[in-house]
Amino acid sequence: MAETKQATPVKSTTSVQPKKSSNLISWLAPILCLVAGYVIWRFVIGNPTGFEQPDPAGGFWPKHVGPKSGFASIYEGGIIIPILIGLLLMAITFFVERLMTISKATGKGNPGNFVRRVQYQLANRNLDAALAECDKQKGSVGNVMKAGLRRYKEMIDEPNLDTAQKVLAIQKEVEEATALELPMLQRNMIFLSTITTVGVMIALLGTVIGMIRSFSALGDEGGGGNATQLAIGISEALYNTAIGIATSALALIFYNILTTRIDSITNGIDEAGFTLTQSFASLYK
């Protein structure tokens, strides 16, 4: 009886290595933004020169009265305002950080055009030119395509596997390379999605606090109310609402912009994997 020849297992080490990058910004940025939010509220918006009756005692939360401008009036929004300003700064910080990272991951040129250039080189069996295109692209799609092309090149001269097994090996290489690229694209996106929701909730808290102060003022002096305290309470409620909604809306816009760009890269990676497997299956049957 003839012996059945068993296929030699293919080494499944991807040529794309994990990216070693520090994510220190995710720890420092929230703290620094909240501190900066307080500094802006306390010393810029709450500058004593902007009020008719500044609080001479100063301290953590000076009780300034009589803002001279609409900008100084924001100070009357209360202690929730610096938190909302901190969230706004946080949204801007993470948007800029993600935009820089995703722009680098996009690489040079349109990912779709890059994949078509590689398809052309593969159709002409010119693997070296296809690899050169990946080096020029310098993005996540190029990295994944390059990893797949290297395995593609190995599989051409692999005598112990049939075509289906070779295609599977190429597909696995692409999947492993993709698994190393995508986490880098998604990192810190959770902050923007969280700010989108939390900004409104914190603004609602400030609004409720402001309305409590307003109704407390109405109850003073036998129901006649203190006009100054009533006005401060209403201002606190409205400024918190306005800044909270603006912060959440901006964070949502930032999130959608970045998600669209990430989807474009992901689609390019999927197209790259499909191109490699289909090319090999058709050319090396």
Give a short synopsis of this structure:
The protein is built from nine helices and two strands, in the order H-E-E-H-H-H-H-H-H-H-H. By secondary structure, it is an all-alpha fold. The protein has one domain (25-283).
Secondary-structure topology with pairs:
Blueprint: H1 25-45, E1 51-53, E2 65-67, H2 70-73, H3 80-106, H4 111-123, H5 127-137, H6 140-156, H7 163-186, H8 189-219, H9 227-283
Antiparallel strand pairs: 1-2
Helix pairs in contact: 1-3, 3-8, 3-9, 4-5, 4-9, 5-6, 6-7, 6-9, 7-9, 8-9
What does this structure look like?
This protein is mostly helical and 285 residues long. It has one domain (25-283). It is built from 9 helices and 2 strands. It has helices at 25-45, 70-73, 80-106, 111-123, 127-137, 140-156, 163-186, 189-219, 227-283, and strands at residues 51-53, 65-67. The chain has a two-stranded antiparallel sheet. The longest helix is centred in the last third of the chain and has 57 residues, at 227-283. It is rod-shaped, with a radius of gyration of 29 Å.
